[in-house]
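Shipment paperwork, digital attachment
Item: protein structure file
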Amino acid sequence: MNKLIFLLIAIFGFTIISNAQTKKVNTKMEYIEIAKFKLNKGFKNEQLIEAEKAVRKGLIKTQKGFISREISIDKDGSWLMDMRFDTKENMDAWFDTLKQDSTMKVLGSMIDFPTVRMEFFTKQF
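Attachment content:
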């Protein structure tokens, strides 16, 4: 009886492991923009955060394919913005739309553009 129980547990465990290994991971495509920048002199971190909150309540929340937008700061005062869309085309459409978004104009006025470094990635997993 013990051998039968052990055999059933072993078969059950093997089935679970082999199913987990052969199951496809369901990941959605994401197109990612990473931008690093500093603030223009005279602007405070709190002002950027308030401007970012306004952006998130503005046109971007209804932009097709928008997934997320996060901002972070490091110890030397450099900001990192991580923005994600489902496709490059939808992100490009946002870049066209943001020119008409007054909240983005306010946020943009705070950025020291010579310090901006942008990179684009496509999520793989």
